[in-house]
Design a protein that fits this description.
Elements: E1 17-21, E2 28-29, E3 32-33, H1 37-51, E4 55-59, H2 75-84, E5 89-91, H3 98-105, E6 112-114, H4 129-136, E7 141-144, H5 155-159, E8 166-168, H6 170-184, E9 190-194, H7 199-212, E10 215-218, H8 223-229, H9 241-255, E11 260-262, E12 267-270, E13 279-282, E14 292-296, H10 298-309, E15 313-317, H11 330-341, E16 345-348, H12 351-359, E17 368-369, H13 373-381, H14 386-389
Parallel strand pairs: 1-4, 1-7, 4-6, 5-6, 7-8, 9-10, 9-15, 10-11, 15-16, 16-17
Antiparallel strand pairs: 2-3, 12-13, 12-14
Helix pairs in contact: 7-9, 7-13, 8-9, 10-11
Length: 395
């Protein structure tokens, strides 16, 4: 459980300036937000603070700009926020500076100012003390509700928290509590579903769950590192060479663990990574030359579905195959449907898994869908998150 102060602990009398680090790193198309899940996730904290008459200064990054690139402006996110809340919302023209200071000073209680993309400032990622000091001067209190950036020691996630009374937002609190419970006190059995391309991205997670989970189900291109570690031919399948030895070690550890590590038993193959390529179902896992595995097969999908249905807690991170191409979406769809129907606690670790759930219309049928892919993985691996560590301890 989170041992930090939360926004509910703040003694706000009305009129206080509150700097809130939100995660408005949302997809844009033609200057409009195409997926507002992260903005909606911040609303409970924003509305709680507005209800107490606070003057809110919101800050967030968006994308990975190299400079002040107009296409990475937070203006579209501000516009979407304006549509979602009953409060005045103003978009600042910069992150810091005299004009921004004037806009902060002009804020009325119950109103919102959204600063520009924090990564427009080079000092953001380097946690520059001067940038943190400037940002801190705009507020009386700091709240971090950006779980998706909590694993970064940036000026807006760590630096400012050292200079102001600092508390967690409702979203960050829920994320930490939900994910911590998975490894510390899950309802049993705990079934972990891991997909994606690289074993190296998930090796620390696999290692941790081999000690705490009851079953780990492996899918996605990362399964080919495991197959190669077992001496199974993988044809032209996407293969992370450095993942082979990591997979070999994981398999060895699984032999002495109480956790079962399961691999696909059948595959869907394609000649090329394309939706219109030749396709065939493979009853087995020996991929012939000239073919690549692009999805788990129907038998594997059914077996994994049964494991998920019997679990008390399910954690899913990573697709089972190239779900963005319909001929190879079956395995991921089957897992998504099984997770959505599972009677136990179901947690999805953001990223491609969340995108898959959304594409299948199942996003609202899980217990918790994390807004932070990297942050969620690091928390589950047992790593401290700088954005959480910097907050004030609860008394």
């Amino acid at each position: 459980m989170l041992d930090k102060k939360t926004v509910r602990d703040l003694d706000l009398q009305g009129g206080e300036r509150v700097l809130v680090r939100v995660d408005f790193n949302v997809p844009l198309e033609d200057g409009r937000v195409t997926d507002d899940v992260r903005i909606r996730a911040a609303l409970p904290t924003i509305e709680l603070l507005l209800g107490k008459g606070a003057r809110l200064v919101l800050c967030s990054h968006l994308g990975r700009p190299k400079d002040r690139e107009p296409e990475t402006s937070l203006a579209p996110a501000s516009e979407r926020l304006r549509e979602l809340i009953d409060a005045p919302v103003t978009q600042a023209s910069a992150v810091v500076g005299d004009e921004v200071k004037a806009q902060v000073d002009a804020l009325e209680p119950g109103s919102v100012l959204v600063l520009e993309n924090t990564r427009w400032e080079p000092g953001e990622k380097s946690n520059d003390p001067q940038l943190a000091k400037q940002l801190a001067s705009y507020a009386d209190v700091y709240v971090n509700d950006a779980f998706g950036a909590a694993h970064r020691a940036h000026a807006t996630t760590a630096g400012v928290a050292e200079l102001l009374p600092a508390a967690a937002g409702l979203l960050l609190e829920r994320e930490v509590d939900t994910l911590t419970r998975i490894v510390e006190s899950p309802d049993r059995p705990l079934c972990v579903v891991l997909g994606g391309a690289k074993v190296s991205d998930k090796v620390a997670l696999i290692d941790r769950f081999l000690e705490t989970a009851d079953t780990i189900l492996i899918g996605g291109a990362m399964c080919f590192s495991f197959f190669r570690a077992q001496g199974t031919p993988t044809g032209d399948s996407l293969l992370e060479e450095e993942g082979i030895e990591l997979a070999r070690k994981a398999l060895a550890k699984a032999e002495g663990a109480d956790c079962r590590l399961l691999l696909p038993t059948d595959l869907v193959l394609g000649k090329a990574f394309a939706a219109d390529t030749d396709r065939q179902d493979l009853d087995g896992t020996d991929v012939p030359d000239g073919w690549m595995g692009l999805d788990v097969g129907p038998k594997t999908a059914a077996d994994y579905g049964r494991e998920i249905a019997e679990a008390g807690t399910v954690f899913w991170n990573g697709p089972m195959g190239a779900f963005e191409m319909e001929p190879f979406a079956g395995g991921t769809r089957a897992v998504a449907e099984a997770v959505a129907k599972a009677p136990g606690i179901t947690v999805v670790g953001g990223g491609d898994s969340a995108a898959a759930l959304a594409s299948f219309g199942l996003a609202d049928q899980v217990t918790h869908m994390s807004t932070g892919g990297g942050a969620a993985l690091e928390l589950l691996e047992g790593k401290p998150l700088p954005g959480v560590e910097a907050l004030d301890h609860a008394r």
